[in-house]
Specification:
The protein is an alpha+beta fold. Among the domains are: about 180 residues, PAS domain (Beta-Lactamase); about 150 residues, Alpha-Beta Plaits, CATH 3.30.70.270. About 45% of the residues lie in helices and about 20% in strands. Strands 1, 2, 3, 4, 5, 6, 7, 8 and 9 form a nine-stranded antiparallel sheet that branches. The chain has a five-stranded antiparallel sheet with strand order 11-10-14-13-12. Strands 16-17-15-20-21 form a five-stranded mixed sheet, sandwiched between helices. β16 and β17 form a beta hairpin. α1 packs across α10. The chain is flat. The model has no long low-confidence stretch (mean pLDDT about 90). It is an enzyme of class 2 (transferase). InterPro entries: Diguanylate_Cyclase (IPR050469), GGDEF_dom (IPR000160), Nucleotide_cyclase (IPR029787), Rev_trsase/Diguanyl_cyclase (IPR043128), Sensor-like_sf (IPR029151). This is Putative diguanylate cyclase YdaM. Keywords: Membrane, Nucleotidyltransferase, Transferase, Transmembrane, Transmembrane helix.
């Protein structure tokens, strides 16, 4: 009988350990996937901002040059010709004290006097107000500049012509050649390979776009982005790197200081692998976790840049961490085996042993669920909400059609004080049920804390969210919650905001919360919108 009992316990331990091992392994892979998607979102947001800014600069330049009139820029008169070196510059900006707000415009030969060249010089100088604003707004920029095929350049921030001056060699660089009509026929923005900055700012990559006067190509406007900024964006607990179309590493969170000054290819970064193995890495499918050599790889691509993001998770790291997390089960199992001998001797404790095994299985289930869900209402908790919201953003094209509602039960403390916490819990469960049944399957609901609930409405405009909140408010106000002999009529106050991707979800939730507290301070049982109150 003792051997049968021991065998039974061993089977339970092995089964439980195996189940938990697989569960923990899958959790590690899911965490890796979520981290990769989060990294992709950060990189994609930076790419999108860079593309938006370069498009704005290009649109302005094209419209300016095709317009019939233009204003003379006040800085044009400050251009000076250097006879000894045969170039002109805006070096006087430093002497006159406005070099912080303009770039240095340098060009070869005499200052042009023909009308077309003067107009283009005015464009280059007018760009300064945009250069200044973009440089302050987009971190990681080294230089912003306009380069003309007529032999001049305006580069921001201002740098003395003694350190850098226009040279015709610049017209042979990738940032300029890529914009030529015979190379870039659709006039779209383009990214250069990684290169070492001629002005000594280290490795960088450039996004450029052509400027035209009708069909006449004039030059390109460009933004230089440092490798250090891309390295910073990639920071996470998993190794990741960005690979461009030229097989160059343009960003990495590897502990590799060579990237700041040395141009690295994929072979340099992953030198321990063969050419055929690296080719297999590049051929992996996108947007899914795949096995490569002894690693899990998540490969992602970007719409607005010819780059691929590779996130790496070593298989042995997953197995080791999973095994370590499973060790407590084996330790508990050893304890149960010892306990089983006592149970065999003392029949009385047999029930306790079965209860212990059941409790272990139940605890594992509850621990897994409690990571993402509120125990009382079965709604998402804060951690679960942010995971779900990241998934929602990844599959949502129009982020303007996301709205946020935060709601709070009015005088909930009074309910607890009068009727007791058990009835208070009943109220929370009933309210959660009402809200959950009132939203769509793609919407998100979470218990935000205490008597607060957070709702994210997918594909819903701000005005629709206001109406939805009003319907919810009315529904709850007309509901009587019964608990035994007690009947409770309650109300809720709602705050609504729209989602703005530029400020992030936490700030948007804070905006909704401000609207909620406005409603709390102005009578409760009402719906208030942040955009209506504070904008």
């Amino acid at each position: 009988m003792s051997k049968i009992r021991q065998t039974f316990i061993i089977i339970i331990i092995v089964f439980t350990a195996g189940f938990y091992f697989n569960l923990k392994k899958q959790y590690s892979i899911n965490d890796f996937t979520n981290s990769a998607i989060s990294t992709e979102n950060r990189v994609n947001q930076y790419i999108k901002l860079s593309c938006d800014y370069i498009d704005i600069l290009s649109i302005y330049g094209n419209e300016y040059m095709t317009s019939n009139t233009h204003d003379t820029n006040s800085y044009l008169k400050d251009l000076n010709y250097n006879k000894s070196n045969n170039y002109y510059s805006l070096d006087s900006a430093s002497v006159k004290g406005y070099s912080n707000y303009v770039g240095n415009l340098t060009g070869k030969g005499y200052i042009p006097i023909d009308s077309e060249s003067i107009k283009e010089l005015n464009l280059a100088l007018n760009y300064n107000k945009y250069f200044y604003s973009i440089y302050k707004t987009l971190p990681g920029i080294t230089w912003i500049y306009y380069t003309s095929k007529k032999g001049f350049m305006n580069i921001y921030p201002w740098i003395s012509s003694k350190e850098f001056v226009y040279n015709d060699v610049l017209l042979e660089k990738e940032f300029f050649i890529g914009g030529l009509p015979n190379v870039n026929k659709n006039k779209s923005h383009f990214w250069t390979p990684i290169y070492n900055d001629a002005a000594g700012q280290g490795n960088m990559v450039t996004i450029s776009k052509s400027i035209y006067n009708n069909q006449n190509f004039l030059g390109v406007v460009s933004i230089d982005i440092t490798v250090n900024k891309l390295n910073y964006i990639l920071q996470s607990k998993y190794n990741a790197f960005l690979l461009n179309e030229y097989n160059q590493i343009i960003g990495s969170n590897f502990d590799n200081h060579e990237m700041e000054t040395k141009l690295l290819n994929l072979n340099d970064l992953l030198s321990e692998y063969t050419e055929s193995q690296l080719k297999a890495l590049k051929d992996l499918p996108k947007d899914k976790v795949a096995k490569w050599q002894d690693n899990y790889i998540y490969k992602l691509s970007f719409k607005d840049a010819p780059w691929a993001l590779y996130c790496i998770l070593p298989v042995d790291k997953v197995l080791i961490e999973t095994f370590i997390s499973t060790l407590p089960i084996f330790i508990i199992g050893a304890f149960l085996l010892l306990l089983s001998y006592e149970i065999y001797v003392r029949k009385k404790t047999e029930t306790n042993l079965k209860g212990l095994v059941k409790e272990l299985a139940l605890t594992q289930s509850l621990l897994h669920k409690s990571a993402s869900y509120d125990f009382l209402t079965s709604l998402l908790n804060r951690r679960g909400f942010f995971e779900k919201f990241s998934e929602l953003l990844a599959k949502t094209n129009n982020k303007e059609l996301i709205s946020i509602i935060i709601t709070d039960i009015d005088f909930f403390k009074r309910i607890n004080d009068i009727y007791g916490h058990s009835i208070g819990d009943t109220v929370l469960v009933n309210v959660a049920h009402i809200i959950k049944n009132s939203i769509n399957c793609n919407d998100i609901i979470a218990r935000w804390g205490g008597e607060e609930f957070l709702i994210v409405l997918h594909n819903t405009k701000y005005e629709e969210a206001i109406n939805k909140a009003e319907i919810l408010r009315t529904s709850i106000a007309n509901t009587i919650i019964k608990h035994k002999e007690v009947e409770i009529k309650l109300s809720m106050t709602f705050g609504v905001s729209k989602y703005d991707d530029s400020i992030g979800i936490e700030q948007c939730i804070s905006n909704a919360d401000k609207a909620l507290y406005y409603g709390k301070n102005n009578g409760r049982n009402r719906v208030d919108g942040y955009e209506d109150l504070f904008k």
